[in-house]
Each structure stands twice: as structure tokens, then as C-alpha cells.
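Reopening this one. Same input as before:
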Amino acid sequence: MVVFQFLAFYSLLFLLGRGLTQAINFFFIKDETLVDKKIFGINFEFYYPILALFFIGNTVVILNFFTGVNSYFLVFLISGVFLFNIRKKPTIKFSFFSFLNYFLIPSILSISSKDLGMHPDTGLYHLNYQNWIRSEKIAIGITNTNERFGYSSIYDHISSALWFGDNFLLLHFLNLSFMVIFFHFLSFNLFNNKNRDMFMLSYFILLFGILDNFGFSGGRNGFIYIEGIGKPDVGFAIIFFLTNILLITSIRKKSYSNLDFFVASLMALFTIQLRVFGILCLFLLGYYLLEMCDYKLINIFKKIKLLITSVVLGIFWMLKNVLISSCLFFPVEITCLHFLSWNKFEHAENAAYVVQDFHYGLPTEDGLSGWYSHWMTSPHNSAIAKNFILSLLLICIIRIIFFKGISKFNTRLNTFIFLYTVLNFYMWLYNAPAIRLAMGILLLTIGILGLGDLELRFKNSFFKLYENKVIITLTIVLCTLLVPRAYKYVEFIKNPLESNFAGAGITETVDNPRGWGLVPKEGSECEVNIDCVPYPVEVTLSYSSFLNYKIFIPPEEWTKYGE
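Same output, byte for byte:
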């Protein structure tokens, strides 16, 4: 049953993205058909699910300024977009490639839904924040009730539209959708893309995924994996990887277009909305713009109009951030507006330090050697770090022995890519060096090894088997099969038609002795209860004179003036 449920869910995402494309064609681009175009050399239909998720998330963000999204308006709007599919009926093409990407891969990944529970953070703050989005318009200063709300991303806004009664299985389907997009990208590059860089980097990443199942402590090398329901880590890693690798390969080929740049700007925004770490993508997007405009100021000004959509949506996103946390980007203290009444003195800075301390960030340790010793004391960190290094070395050896680069060495670009990768690793180590937060960087690192228009060193036909369609298919399917754990297949075979249920816990609460709301009687998980705060906190609820917004004000001694 779960297989058919996910296939239906992903099909609806696909059709929503297609309907949105038809709507854009109808209202804005009357003389051209977007469906027939390619973006970064990839068929437009690949982007439909990404476009659908981006549309849902940003629609919810904007709608939440005025109302909760648990309303008929959102359903009406999405239904209206769906209807645009009628404008040009979709043509169903039966091919092995379509079967692989729209049936086989989603079906395999859906098996991971069996007996899957919530991620601990989901009950801690994700569901609670999503219920706020569903039930109320933006609550000003809500981060003062739970600082983790400041970390909530557009993933929560998308998820808030996917509640189905008290069953949160669709939140897992959301995560699986990102995975299907990821494998679709790799399979397209291996079957249809004439870009040699894309072909080899996709092969290396599949090899990286297969190696994820071998090594210390049973494997795990930093490849994407099935998380507990409700976390955006995999979604962020995949969009981060796609945005970066598409820009890098395009710059390498000196292949620039207005449509590519427009889509890249939206994907960069999506990455930032998924996690503030994604702001680093702007360095690469800026480099793309400079190269496209040949470093001429007049050309750059001509391209600025392509950024209007992403800038407008970005402004809404930052305004939302300011309203809930007083910061443009929480927990970056330098972006906080201390004159706002709901700003808590050094709240963002303290929150950032808590995360750094929990994950052994660089600032919390005595130098690099002290950090390394502490970080590696975690068996989880130690095993995955060793496995990643071994996987990296093996892929490097395969590249050196079997392949040679045939493209010219671009000193400026390669230096930029190297420094950009180092910057990503440094910011990860500095802020929150948890392995799950590094998946996008690790994928990007492996992908970069495939650059250089690699050509096989040996002419023997045996060594060319990797280009055989059957070998490619088996590699993709094997990598996909290894993503869900083995016991999931056993459970699925036992009850293939069983419908899965993923529910939230029930928290027993008592009055908050220090201010507004309730607190859990035990622990700190509020689950879906929006009147609950995770621990006793001093905060006062008031209402704005404009549109009656709820405002959560900290005590006066915790304002910008400090204690």
C-alpha cells in the first residue's frame, strides 16, 4: 500500500510543477514553451517536483503573514494550478528511463516508510512550529518561547501543508521526494546527458553511495540516508549539491543562459530557505554572473532583472525571519535588529554557541588539535570520518588509474572551486560539525572528482563496460536498493499492503511558572501543542495594534541593553 501511496504523492508533485510551468507560460511567456526547454542541459520536466516544493513553501510563507495555512484558500490555490495541466495535456511516454525514475526508484525508496518513527527534533520543535503555521498568522517574537523555532526552515512551511489528520507519513514522503529527485538527476546524466563531467561525477557519487554500506561500524560515509520523519537535512543536502554542481559544470563549459541563471537564483534561494548555511551558494552564483557578463558592469546591470523574483521572495523570507526572531538570519547575531521590542539581548549569539558546543564546533575547543581530539571521541563521528576518507581515497585511486582529464586546466576557476570547498568545510567545522549537516558538502566534494572531461586510459573493451546501459542501470538500482535498511524489505514482504501510520506523541503539561504557556511535565518535547514551551521561560504575550498580531516579549532586563 505504501508504494502506491508514495507513487501517487510524487505524481501529484510532478503535476503541480507541470501545472505551474503551464501557468507561467500562460501569464508571462506567451511566445515560448518552457516545457520544450532545457535548464543546465537537463530536460525541464526534471525540475517539476523541485518547482512544486518551492512553490508550496513560498506560498505558505507569504500566506502566513495574513492567516494560518490550515485553510481552504491554499487548497483552492493549489487546485487552480493543477488545472493548468489541462491547457496542454501531458503526453505519457513509456520508456525504460521513465519506468526507472517514476516507478522503480520511488517504489524502492518508499519501502523505507515501514516502521519509521519521528526524528527526536520533530517532537522537540518541528511539529510545534508547523502547527503554529497552520493555526495562526505569524507570531512576532515566537523564538522567545522556543529558540529552536529560529532554526525552522521552509521545509517546515512545506510540511505544514502536508498534515493528514494525525498521520504524518506525508512528511516522510516529502523527504523521499528529494531523494527521487537526486537519483533522477544522476540517472539522467548517465543515460542522456552529453556533458562528460556530469556523466563521471554521477558515476562517482553512485560509487560513493554503494561504499556507504561498507567500512567501520558497519558503514556510513556521509552519503544520504533515511532520517527519522520531519528533518530537512537530506532535502537541504540534495538541493545544495544540485545548485552547486549545476553552476560549477556550467561555468566549466562556459555555457550561460538567462533561463539557467534565473533558475539557479531560485535554487540558491531555496537552499538558503532550507538552511541558512546555504547562503554560501551566493558566492558561486555571483561568480557565475561575473563570468556570464565577462566581468563588465554594464552587462551585470542588464542581468539584474533576472534576480527580481528571487529577491522579492527573499525579502518575504527575511521579513518572516525578523518577525519571529528579530534577526534576518537566525542565529547570526550580526543580522539581528536590536531596536525591536521582541529582540532578546544576545539571544542569537547564545543560541549559536549552544549548537556549536553540542556538535563540538571549533570555537568551543582549544585549537584545531584539541577540537580534533574531542570530535573524534564520538564513535559516530570517528567511524563516518574514516569511512569517508577511505571512500574518497578509493574514488581518487580509480580516477587516477583508469581515467585521465582531457580538458585544459582553468587556473582561476579551479582555484575558486578549491577555495569555495575549503570555505564550506571551514564554516561547517566552525558552526555545527555534525555529519548529517555535512552531506551536501561531502556529495559536492565527491562530485568535483568527476570534473575534467575524464576519458578512459585503456582501449580494451572490457574497461568500457561502465558505459554499458545495463551496467549503468544495475549500478543505479543497487545504490537505490542499499538506501533503505535490509529489515525494511523483510517487513514489506511480510505485509506489502499494510498502510503505515506515523503519529505524534501526547505531552502531559503543567503551567509555565515563569510566564506564558505550558511546559511538559517531563522532558522538553511539546509535540503539536502550540501553547507549550519546552522549558520554563520568561515571556509575555501581547497583541499588536496592526492586524492584532501576537507578540512574545522578553523581560525588560533581557532587551538590547542587557542585564
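So the earlier flakiness isn't reproducible anymore. For the record, The radius of gyration is 24 Å.
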